From TrEMBL:
Its main location: cytoplasm. Homodimer. It holds the Pfam family PhoU. Belongs to the PhoU family. It is found in: Cytoplasm. This is Phosphate-specific transport system accessory protein PhoU. The keyword Transcription does not apply. The lineage of its organism: Bacteria, Bacillati, Chloroflexota, Dehalococcoidia, Dehalococcoidales. Keywords: Cytoplasm, Phosphate transport, Transport. The keyword tRNA-binding does not apply. It comes from Candidatus Dehalogenimonas loeffleri.
Amino acid sequence: MRTDYERSLKKLQDKVLSMGSMVEQALILSMDAMKNRDLALADKVIKQDEKINARRFEIEEDCIHLIATQAPMASDLRVIVAVLNIIIDLERIGDHAAGNAKIAVMLGDEPPLKPLIDLPRMAEKTADMLRRSMDAFVARDAAAARKVTEDDDEIDALYDQIFRELLLFMAENPKTASRATRLIWAGHNLERSADRVTNICERVVFVVTGKQEEIGGKY
């Protein structure tokens, strides 16, 4: 019986990792769609968000079933509670990625204000943070989770830089306001995604230490 329970917990963790990979891919592809004006790719990311949402509810049902049938205690209960929180943050990051795919569609074939460099950097860095947070969850490594949150400052700095630069574009040429505003939205989606990764890291620390605490900077 215990072996079946442990197998169920392992399966639950694997589903969370799979969902994390789906969200990480959505972050990267949505930015590729924006950078390359690839509307077909943007549409693919938007549709993929439905699968991410479905995976969240599937995992949630699994957690409820485990709690109801196994009455988990101590560390096992902490893992399940953490998973219930982690999948909410993953689903929200997926929403932000889908939001950026929709912005790519809005931008359509409008002429670019400038080559996109910092937004892709934000997307790649946020995806890297997400991947490392999932690794820390699997390894039950609180130190690694704390380390991930340190990178949120870099994301915030990039967003500030993008925001100031796009405001300058709008001030110098009001005709750029629409495109610049949409790019600011995209930056904000990525900045919020990194904050969500920080939340996941806090859940990892909770699993390991049993303590609820806020780590990393909040924008």
